[in-house]
Structure formats: C-alpha cells, structure tokens
C-alpha cells in the first residue's frame, strides 16, 4: 500500500505500538491521526482531570512524532467514521490501522467503522496493544468468562510471559502533502477556570514521563511494594495507572521491565510479583467489562439492583465530595483527589465503603465523581472498583464487606502522617487522637486549637447505626 492512516486513540506512544509497526512495514507513507469525538462515548466521555492529561499527552506525542520527521493530524468532530472518510478522500489512503480498545460503546463504534471502511474498499485493521491478552481468550474450564480474580490470575500466569515489546520505528515516512489539522488547544480540553494548573507540578504525561515513572518505581518502591502499597503516607506505589490508561506505556513493557529487574534479585521478587498481580487486576477489569458491558452502569449481579439506597443522600454526598465527612482518613483521601487528580488505592476503598455502605449513596454517584476527578479514570477499573465496594460486582466477598474508617486509619496510617498532610486542621492532635477527633477529650482538642463543628466537622453519619442498616439491607437482598 502507498498510504496508511494510523489512528491513535489511547495508545499515545511510539514504542510497542503494533498498529504503528504494521503501518510502517506495510505502507510507503504513514499519516498519524488523532480524532476527538467524545460524543461517541456518551456519558463516559473523558472527565475534567482526564481531559487535562489528554491535552498534555497529545502535545508530547506531537513532539515525539516531529522528532521522527512526522506530525500528528488532529481533527475534532461528531463521528470518527466521517472524519476518517474525509481524511481518506484528502490523502488517498488505502488503509486505516488502529489498536483495539474494549469499552462497550467504543467496541460498538469500532466494529461499525471497520465494516464501513472495508465496504468501501479500505484496508481496515486493528491490533492488540492495550492488554496482555484479549478478553475473549480468557475462559474458565466450562468455557465461560471469569467473575472471580484468583482463577483468572492462575490462567493468565499459566500462559507465561507475554510477547516482548516492539521497538520504536527509526522513522515514519511522510506523505508528499500533509492534510490540514487542528491544534491540541483547539480541542478545548482544558477547564475554565483552570482548576487543573496544579497538576503540572505533579505529573509528566507522555511516553517519556511514563518511562521515568516506571524507572522510579523499579529502582525504589518495587522492593517494598507488597506491604508498602497499603500505606498512603509512603510513596511505595508505581503511580503508573494514568500512563497505562492513555497508552503511553504498554502492559507488555511494564511486565517485561519488571521481570528483567527481578531476575537474580531475590529481594525484589516478592514486591515484583505483587505488582505483576496488580497488572493482572487491570486485565481482569477489562475482561469483566467486555464480557458484561452493562456493568459500567448497572450491578453485575442483577439482584443488587434492589438495594435500598438512602433517600435524600445528596447533602451527605456533597460533604463526601468536599472531604468534610468528619472521618479523617476519608477526608484526607477526598482532598488528595481534588488537589492531585489521584487517590491512594487503600484510601479509595475506605472512602468508597463509607459512601456506599454507610451513607448508602448509589455506587454510580461515586463512580461519576471519580470519573471526573481522577487522572487515571478508566471505565473498566473504575466500574469494577465501585461494584467491588458495593458488593454487587466481580470478586465481591461472600460476606458484605464494610470498612471501619477508624480501624483502617490506625492500621495503615498509624502516625497520622497522611491525615496531617491533607487535613492540616488536625495536625496538632496526638497520633492516638488524630484518627478519631470526635472521641478526643475536650482538653486535647483545645490544646490542638480545634473546636469540632467549627474547625473540623463531627461525623456526618453514625457509623454503628449506618453499618447495622447496611447489613440488614444486604441480608434482605440475599434472602429475597
């Protein structure tokens, strides 16, 4: 073929990009394209934090392509198929190559695009790049999709290491004449007012930033990851999730880099294996969403659709969103999220449990808030995480799990360092009191300069009563 359009989506990298490699090998000229048609994703179009990341990542990709004597053609429209047809007419392209994604609306869109392009004689081809294995390749002994992680992990592990990642092509042969393009700024991804300005100091979107983040983790925190990943005051996680979501690094690259670093170093094996298991959780989340597409909006298990959510929960939801619940570990997490576009995973579970089990707000409310505020908002991971917390989804425990925010806080942030960082009004409390200021003696609160209800809220919900109500509701669901 003379000319192929390379359709970038959430594979914003040049290394280990199968669609890019195939385009370079099979065509004389390659036209890299990014199409922005968020309406095709309906309510799951990128949220505010994700849009900030996308803006920066597209800028980085444009620079990387320029270094290869190429450029990124950006177009904005209502329909990806219409935009592709316009580009085919303008360039005479004979093929369109892309890497597959697995969210329900995107799968439906891509199938329609592939069929329509092939019908008009265009060589439309898609490739696996976003996951280690295709969702449909993973089956139980009965030939059914998985709903429980541990047997999924065993099957994945038995298949051995994934293929080695592909290298960047040395160059991309440009067309004789480039089609017109829009700028990244013209996509309007940045918010007004600029809540997201603070994110620039915390993250480096792009392929180079992803490589640096992985190096930093492999050189340091991986050795203590097995236990350290549960401590929110420490920096013992990889923080690679937004890079993986936007495809600035592939799971193949992450997997093999970790394996290479673990080789011959026993001290790294325990932490490294625990981290590879987390990559497998990402695979599992995409497997579940692909096989059960309703699970992004509805309970995976239908009986949980009748769970009795609290009437008039909206004021409690708003307090949760603002980090003003009166439960310090939860408030610290919600404030970290607002300030950084990220929340430590242990704290995500605690905060989610409070919302769906004690406040009894629908898990979809939490999922929507995380979708808009997380830089690593991923439909598969977000949906599975919230359904796990609600007890309605894949891998939910046989019992109705309710996290106690106070015992969780004392266990995983014993010195209150995480709380002091994000809830500074409690910073002067002693370690033993910072987790439960409402139980502190008046003299201790006074010495710390705190008046509950003025400087920091009382708990917005009675934990014991709300726990009993949630357990009763769950029993009713199971008995119905």
Automatic annotation (TrEMBL):
Keywords: Chromophore, FAD, Flavoprotein, Lyase
Highest rank taxon of the organism: Bacteria
GO molecular function: deoxyribodipyrimidine photo-lyase activity
Top-level enzyme category: lyase
EC number: 4.1.99.3
KW Transmembrane (keyword) present: no
Cofactor: FAD; (6R)-5,10-methylene-5,6,7,8-tetrahydrofolate
Annotated region described as Disordered, given as residue ranges: 159-178
Ranges of compositional bias, category Pro residues: 162-177
Domain Photolyase/cryptochrome alpha/beta as annotated: residue spans: 2-132
Gene3D superfamilies with a match to the protein in the record: 1.25.40.80, DNA Cyclobutane Dipyrimidine Photolyase, subunit A, domain 3 (1.10.579.10), HUPs (3.40.50.620)
InterPro entries listed in its UniProt record: Crypto/Photolyase_FAD-like_sf (IPR036134), Crypto/Photolyase_N_sf (IPR036155), Cryptochr/Photolyase_FAD-bd (IPR005101), Cryptochrome/DNA_photolyase_1 (IPR002081), DNA_photolyase_1_CS_C (IPR018394), DNA_photolyase_N (IPR006050), Rossmann-like_a/b/a_fold (IPR014729)
A Pfam family of this chain: FAD_binding_7
Record flagged with keyword RNA-binding: no
Family that this chain belongs to: Belongs to the DNA photolyase family. Belongs to the DNA photolyase class-1 family.
Protein name, per record: Deoxyribodipyrimidine photo-lyase
